[in-house]
Structures are given as C-alpha cells and as structure tokens.
Amino acid sequence: MSTRVEVALGPRSYPVLVQTHCLPQLGATLRTHGLAQTNAFVLTNPDVAALYFSTLETSLKNAGFQRIVRHDIPASEEGKNWDVFSATCAALLEHFPDAGASPLVLLLGGGVVGDLGGFAAAVYRRGVPFVQIPTTLLAAVDSSVGGKVAVNFGGVKNIMGAFSQPRLVFCDLATLKTLSPRELRSGTAEIIKYGAVCSQSLFDDLEAGALEKLLAQNPETLVDIVARCVQLKANVVAQDEFDKLGIRNVLNFGHTIGHALELSAHYALTHGEAISIGMAAATRLALQLGLCDALFQTRLEALLLRAGLPLSYPGHPELFEPMLRALQLDKKFRNGKNLFVLPTAPGAWKQVEDIPWPLVHATMQEAIADKPGA
Ligand SMILES: NC(=O)c1ccc[n+]([C@@H]2O[C@H](COP(=O)([O-])OP(=O)(O)OC[C@H]3O[C@@H](n4cnc5c(N)ncnc54)[C@H](O)[C@@H]3O)[C@@H](O)[C@H]2O)c1
Ligand SMILES: [Zn+2]
Predict the structure, then answer these.
(1) What is the pLDDT of residues 302-345, one digit of tens each?
(2) For residue range 168-222, what is the model confidence (pLDDT) as tens digits?
(3) DSSP string of 34-60, one letter each residue
(4) Does 110 fall in a domain?
(5) How many beta carbons lie within 10 A of that of residue 11, not counting itself?
(6) Domain, as residue range, for 103
(7) How far apart are the CA of 89 and the centre of ligand 2, in A?
(8) What is the pTM of this model?
(9) Closest C-alpha among 70, 144, 64, 135 to residue 105
(10) Do 210 and 72 fall within a single domain?
(11) Whose C-alpha lies nearest to ligand 1, atom 19?
C-alpha cells in the first residue's frame, strides 16, 4: 500500500512517500530518488533506534552506504534545545570534517528528531541534504513536511530555526505500531486540525468513523488519511513556503493558546494534547465573536473527545501568567495586537486581529480553570 504526494516548491520540490512496511527498502528508495551519497548521519533517539535502527542500517548497507554514523538525542521535547542541537552539530563536524565527504542526514523519529535534526542539516556547511523518516503520527502528517526546522530556546518554542526542505519524506506507517496510545492520539489532534480548517470532506470522514479506524491502525485508513493530510499541508506550503503571506497561518489553528500552554505546563501535555485544548479555546473565541455556530463547536469537541484528547487542562489556574508571557512572544502578534486563526465552518477559517484582550484572557482562564467552565 503506498501513496506519493508531491510538495511543489520549484527547485526545492520533493515527494512524500506514504507507505507501510517499507523501511527495509529505504536505501534502494534513496538511490532511485537520486541520493547517491555513501556516508549517512542518522539522527534518532535511543527508544526509536532500539526498534528500527538495525533495519535502517541493513537497508543502507545493501544500497552501498559505507559509513553510517548514528547519533542519539534525548527522547522528549525537553531535548529539543540549543545544547542538544549544538552537540548534534559537533557530532557532524567530528565524523564528517571533510567537505568532500558530506553525509546524507537521515532523521529517524518524531517531530523532535525531525525539527532539531533538520535545523542541524540546514546550517551544517550552510546546508547538507536530509531525509525525514517520521515514526510518529504527528510527524507523518505534519512536522516532516514543509521545511520548518527549529529548536526551543530561552523558554520560547521553535524560536531558533530556519526554512529548509528535505529531499524526501519517507514514511513507513507500520512503525506506528510501537507508538504509545497517548502519542497516537496526540497525532490525531493535527489530523482533526486539517479537517476543521482545511477540508470539510476530511472532517466529515473522520466523523463518519475514519477516526476510529485510524486509531485502530487500519492500514488502508492510515495511508489514506495521512496522505490526504500531507496533500493539504503541501497545498498550503506551496502557496506560502516562507510563511510571508499569511496563508500558512491556517496551520496554526489551535497553536496560539496551545503552544503557550504546552510551554507553560513544562511539557506535561504532549504537543497534540495542548493543540487540542488550543483548538477548543479558539473555537470558543470564534463562537463568541459570532464567526462559527454552536453546531460546529459541538462537532469539533465531540471529535476531539472521541480521539481521547482533552478540551481543557483543569486545575491549573497558576499557568495563566506564564501562558500570557508565552503568548506575548507569539510570532503572529505585532505591536501589541493579537492575531488568531479561528474556524468558521468545517474546512474554513478566518484570521482575526486584535480580539479584545479580556475575551482572550477569559478564554485562556477557562482552559485551565479549577472546574471546567468556572
Ligand atoms: N516542523 C513543523 O512544521 C512541526 C509541525 C508540528 C509539530 N512540530 C513539532 O513536533 C514535535 C512533536 O513531535 P512528536 O509528537 O512526533 O513528538 P516526539 O518527537 O517527542 O515523539 C514522541 C515520543 O514518541 C517516541 N516515538 C517516536 N516514534 C516511535 C515509534 N515508532 N514507536 C515508539 N515510540 C516512538 C519518541 O521517542 C518520543 O518519546 C514538537 O516539538 C512540535 O513543535 C513541528
Ligand atoms: Zn502542531
């Protein structure tokens, strides 16, 4: 089972291969996509490496790779920082000091490996080619595609980074079998996001039962839904690669309050859980501003609950101040004016500027109140 989605970016175009049980063919696939290097630098983490590194290594050796260096980073968001990034650059320099023998960088893991490793590949010698090999649902549908690579810094998420596109995204959805149920659910948050603001048909299909099939890892459903999400993201990225036109903002639905909460809760919530709470909050804002109707809110919240995702993080009112500080650093906010991506109907959205701060505050407080709705 396989699907191929093109990310059309002129000279930086690349395919996203969405398949199952394809990891043993990685090496051969790299060759058919014109990646002829004989050195590979594989960035991963100990947990993912224990499961998949040996298959990957064998596949690379069979395709003629001679030097394969594995470098591990910590297996959590806390490891997505400048020190770990710096150690990764140091490993690149230590193992591949010769400019004539630059490696192909392979990023085997979730969004943390992909974001940090993509950034290291983007800046090492002003850029060496890299391939994303996402092993989480979230990375498959979102972070491995689009070329945003970054690390967290100074308490701000993704503040140090670059735009740098991979040469190929190689996605083996059979690797999701070993993912924890919590991480699988977390990935569905981004999928529901695409349905909510980019595609009514995806939203309808998820509601009609695709969500449960996805959570049960039905292979046809997985390939279909992941490929559709990648296509939706590819369409957005192709129109606004460098996030200059406001088009790419759609992908930030749920991420304004979500990111602030993710950071303030010190990663007690996964990215997807925080985004789920952020989508519920943004939808409450939209409802109060008369941009969406109560039926949309009911449908979205029901879908998030069916995915096992939270709508709030009750009992944490102390997070209000840190969230507010984090919010002020949001890259969409300029000159004290806030800017939110709000849903209007399934598959549709609107960018809204300068929402009255008391309304924003009340919505945030509701997300973390002692009792939901208090
Ligand atoms: N660049 C972008 O456009 C973009 C988009 C969305 C999210 N992100 C970033 O992605 C990150 C979140 O990514 P994530 O949710 O993949 O988290 P993650 O990379 O931390 O992975 C989650 C956990 O799953 C484990 N894991 C990964 N694959 C596994 C597998 N197949 N089997 C068993 N365990 C496995 C990891 O070791 C880790 O503990 C955040 O830092 C977020 O900012 C980036
Ligand atoms: Zn996200």
Answers:
(1) 999 999 999 999 999 999 999 999 888 887 788 888 999 999 99
(2) 999 999 999 999 999 999 999 999 999 999 999 999 999 999 999 999 999 999 9
(3) T---SEEEEEE-HHHHHHHHHHHHHHH
(4) yes
(5) 5
(6) 2-178
(7) 25
(8) 0.95
(9) 70
(10) no
(11) 110
